[in-house]
Design brief:
Helix 2 crosses helix 4. Strands 1-2-4-3 form a 4-stranded mixed sheet, sandwiched between helices. The two termini are about 25 Å apart. The protein has 4 helices and 4 strands, in the order αβββααβα. About 45% of the residues lie in helices and about 20% in strands. The protein is an alpha+beta fold and about 130 residues long.
């Protein structure tokens, strides 16, 4: 499978019902200021993971800065999601994910990317346990 660094419209987590279920029944992983809440999909489709990004207004007051952080989170996920997606596809697992930014500081892209890499590798390890 060739390396595919896409994050298409179909992979974005948009359904209010799914997001509510994710926060009520999902498990989470923390890595520094970034937390990910995840839940196995109800109806696994051809999309291995649906991903959302949240930056609370309580922590980052200015919308410009919230949008900057969201762009950095999405780009870090997009660049590093290939091994994660291939693992999900080969094991026929579907996950819904929400990345939540939990600090008042604005981290650089490299710091965010390092945190996302660690989270994705931990999710690969945990997805084997969760799917059973």
């Amino acid at each position: 499978m060739e390396k595919n660094n896409k994050f298409s419209k179909h992979e974005k987590l948009k359904s209010k019902k799914t997001i509510d279920m994710l926060f009520s029944k999902g498990r989470s992983i923390n890595n520094g200021p970034i937390r990910v809440v995840f839940l196995p999909k109800q109806d696994p489709s051809n999309i291995p993971a649906n991903v959302g990004v949240a930056v609370p207004k309580k922590n980052i007051k200015l919308a410009v800065n919230r949008n900057l952080i969201k762009r950095r989170l999405r780009e870090a996920y997009r660049l590093n999601n290939h091994p994660f997606k291939t693992h999900l596809i080969t094991n026929k697992i579907g996950l819904d994910l929400m990345f939540i930014y939990n600090t008042k500081q604005i981290l650089t892209f490299n710091e965010i990317e390092d945190k996302i890499k660690v989270i994705l590798t931990r999710l690969i390890d945990l997805s084997e346990v969760v799917s059973e």
